[in-house]
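Supplementary Methods, section 5.1.

A reviewer requested that the exact input to the structure prediction be made available. We therefore reproduce it here, unchanged from the version used in the analyses.
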Amino acid sequence: MSHFYLRCYLRSAGLVLAITGIAKICSGFGHALVLEELDPLFKISFGHLFVAVGFLELVIAGICFFYPRQTMPTVVVAWFATNLLAYRIGMVVMGWHHPCPCLGSFTGVIHLSATAADKLMKIVLAYLLIGSYVALGWNWCQHKKTKVQI
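The structure derived from this sequence is encoded token-by-token as follows.
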């Protein structure tokens, strides 16, 4: 992996996070019934959760696009993706066996079923999680190699 590939990964992760962030914010202000339901893990409405997470995704996207170095965005994406994975595991452990309403009412706008949206978001999560950890490993190896050469 080179700096070019890492930069491309971070830009693509930023784009994905910007799109999902905007979708969550738009959905959070919508009128779908799911938005009034309480999230079983955080005990706040899905609508409020979507808006909060959507804004967080936009902040992380901004870091991916504009932060001058590559380590910080990679760490932030890995942290966020790890938290998303923990959230999904927590939902399963609590007995939530429904498709994740991650995109809220936005799925209706793009004519995507809740099941298809759930699968798509699992793919996005895998991309963010695996990509960020591979990038962190590569950064660590590069840093270690640089220290040895000194």
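The helical segments are 3-28, 46-66, 71-93, 106-109, 114-149. These observations are discussed further in the main text.
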